[in-house]
């Protein structure tokens, strides 16, 4: 089976510019696109298909596995020679050999090793979360050689579509961070995630986000991709591609854009300690997994629970009253710490929290042990999340 990508083209409408590529996969035909404000349209790349190839690649490898057939990805225009070399020699072979739902695919695309004209901006993604806040806090330092100039907000429809109250609230937070840090703010919207993958599953997020960056190769020369895990945790993990971010940034860079894995030098707790005294973080930290909170931290999901526990064990929680309901947290500490204790057996983040807690306080209150035990029973005598949606079951 051959999947065809058309040469990317630009479309201007209602003050926006879209970079579009049409896809033909058997009898299935659809369009994929990235959209920015018109003022940034001049930086979208029509000369390379890099951005679409990267964002589609997990889908193509999953599709090859699903249909048990060799797939060739072909494009009407060229791709960056460096990217082609890294994908075909390292990325595709390593992932297809290590991950059960991937099969190798062939890229039948001509290459170009020339550099595009670029203004040399230095960017990172902005979400309000711990990892992106750490990257921003570190690289706004004027002493950094590659000091940040831009933050990129990537809207892939994590709340089910591109325009809703939760999306607007999150956009307000990210714009506030840009304002407080003096960085240029750029929003890019794409239909690729919802069209191909249904939702922003952890195995495909680095490809989707890196593809968005590569659509703007005329703007960015350096981009910090905020990693969730320390380098010591590197592994080719089926559930979360963030575990192999070092491979991602190495293989997804081009002649024009150098990707760096920001944050691999620190543990999550060390990042929290680094950002916990910074004003823009205290006012805008957003870590929530709940998609029905209008852009506010719900205070009860796994990430809210873990982050509040991290702040408390560091003695910083009271300083984050603008983003968390601290009184509600303290009224139900068994619920929160029971989760942290339960997950500490296999989760490196929770293990780090419990180790510091026990070092400081020697033992947990009995309510924490009881809560952890009840959660273990409720999960079916496992610490795993049995309700996790698997991306390979939801592709187009």
What are the defining features of this structure?
single chain; 396 residues; alpha/beta; Rossmann fold; 3 domains; eleven-stranded mixed β-sheet; two-stranded parallel sheet; 14 helices; 40% helix
Assigned CATH architecture of the largest domain: 3-Layer(aba) Sandwich
- Please give the domain count: 3
DSSP strand count:
13
Derived structural class: alpha/beta
Average the pLDDT over all residues and give the rounded result: 93
What Rg, in angstroms, do the CA atoms define? 21 Å
Query: Helicity level, as a percent range?
Result: 25-40%
Distance between the termini: 16 Å
Proportion of β residues? 15-25%
Count of runs of 4 or more consecutive helical residues: 14
The 3D shape can be described as globular
Low-pLDDT sequence parts: none
The H-level CATH homologous superfamily of the largest domain, spelled out, is HUPs
Assign the CATH class of the largest domain. Answer: Alpha Beta
Largest sheet: 11 strands, mixed
CATH topology of the largest domain: Rossmann fold
In sequence order, what are the helices and strands, one letter per element?
Answer: EEEEHEEHEEEHEHEHHEHEHHHHHHH
């Amino acid at each position: 089976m051959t999947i065809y990508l058309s040469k990317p083209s630009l479309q201007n409408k209602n003050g926006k510019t879209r970079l579009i590529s049409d896809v033909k996969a058997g009898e299935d035909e659809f369009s994929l696109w990235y959209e920015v404000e018109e003022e940034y349209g001049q930086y979208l790349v029509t000369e390379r298909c890099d951005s679409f190839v990267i964002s589609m690649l997990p889908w193509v490898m999953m599709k090859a596995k699903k249909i048990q057939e060799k797939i060739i990805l072909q494009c009407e225009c060229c791709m960056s020679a460096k990217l082609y070399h890294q994908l075909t020699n390292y990325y595709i072979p390593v992932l297809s050999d290590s991950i059960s739902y991937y099969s190798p695919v062939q890229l039948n695309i001509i290459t170009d090793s020339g550099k595009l004209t670029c203004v040399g901006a230095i960017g990172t993604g902005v979400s309000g979360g711990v990892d992106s806040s750490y990257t921003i806090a570190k690289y706004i330092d004027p002493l950094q050689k590659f000091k940040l100039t831009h933050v990129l907000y990537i809207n892939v429809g994590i709340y089910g579509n591109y325009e809703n109250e939760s999306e607007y609230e999150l956009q307000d937070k990210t714009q506030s961070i840009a304002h407080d840090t003096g960085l240029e703010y750029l929003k890019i919207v794409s239909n690729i995630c919802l069209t191909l993958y249904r939702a922003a599953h952890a195995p495909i997020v680095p490809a989707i986000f890196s593809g968005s960056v590569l659509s703007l190769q005329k703007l960015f020369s350096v981009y910090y991709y905020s990693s969730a895990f320390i380098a010591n945790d590197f592994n080719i993990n089926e559930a979360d591609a963030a575990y192999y971010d070092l491979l991602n940034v190495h293989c997804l860079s081009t002649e024009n854009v150098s990707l760096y894995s920001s944050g691999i030098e620190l543990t999550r707790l060390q990042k929290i300690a680094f950002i916990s005294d910074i004003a823009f973080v205290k006012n805008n930290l957003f870590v929530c997994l709940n998609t029905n909170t209008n852009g506010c931290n719900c205070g009860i999901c796994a990430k809210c629970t873990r982050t509040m526990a991290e702040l408390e064990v560091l003695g910083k929680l009271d300083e984050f009253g603008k983003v968390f309901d601290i009184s509600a947290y303290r009224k139900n500490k068994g619920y929160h710490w029971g989760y942290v204790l339960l997950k500490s057996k296999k989760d490196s983040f929770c293990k780090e929290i419990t180790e510091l807690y026990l070092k400081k306080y020697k033992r947990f209150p009995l309510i924490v042990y009881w809560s952890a035990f009840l959660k273990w029973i409720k999960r079916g005598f496992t610490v795993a999340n049995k309700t996790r949606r698997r991306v390979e079951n939801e592709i187009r």
